[in-house]
Amino acid sequence: MFKKYLVALLAGLMFAAGLVISGMTQPAKVMAFLNVGGIVDPGSFGAWDASLAFVMGGALCVTLVAFAITTRPGNKPWLAPSFQLPTRRDIDARLLFGAALFGIGWGLAGYCPGPALASLLTGGKDIVIFIAALAVGMWAARRFSH
How confident is the model over 1-59, as pLDDT tens digits? Predict the structure, then answer.
C-alpha cells in the first residue's frame, strides 16, 4: 500500500513541476494561448502564445505511447488489480455542457484544476478564491446532476 502512495506522490510532484516549468500556472500565459483571435489579428486581439501547444502535444505523445504499451493483452498495472479505463464513448448533452463550462471558466480565469492546485503554494488570494469556487462548483454539479 505504501508503494501506491509513493507513486502517487511522485507522479503528483512531477505533474506539478511540469505545470510550473511550462507556464501552465501563469493565467496570463494560458489566456494568451487561448487567445486564438491573435492568430488572425494580433493588433486587435493581442499576440497568440502558441508555446502551450507544445505542452499539450508532449502530453498527448506520452499518453499515446503509454496507452499503446499498457493496453496490450496480458498487461496488468503494477499497483492495482486492473486498469480503470473509461467505458463510455458517446457524446451527450451533459458532456458538451460540462466541456463548455470548463472552457468558459478556463478562458475567464486562466486556471484549470491541475494548474490551480499546483499554484496553491505560490499563488495569492485569486488562486484561493478560484479553488473555493471550484470546490463549490464540483459540489453543486454532484448535488444537482443526479
Answer: 799 999 999 999 999 999 999 999 999 999 999 998 888 888 877 888 999 999 999 99
What is the value of pTM for the model shown? 0.80
Q: What is the DSSP letter of 90?
A: -
For residue 87, give Cα distances in angstroms to 60, 62, 63: 20, 21, 17
Looking at residue 78, the DSSP 8-state letter turns out to be S
**84-99 b/e (C-beta count within 10 Å ≥ 16 → b):** eeeeeeeeeeeeeeee
Residues 28 and 110 sit within 8 Å (Cβ to Cβ): yes
Half-sphere exposure of 121 (CA within 13 A, CB side): 6
CB 52 within 8 A of CB 29: yes
* pLDDT tens digits, 67-86: 898 888 888 888 888 888 88
CB 46 within 8 A of CB 35: yes
Please, are residues 113 and 129 in contact by the beta-carbon 8 Å criterion? no
| Dihedrals phi, psi of 52, to nearest 5 degrees | -70, -15
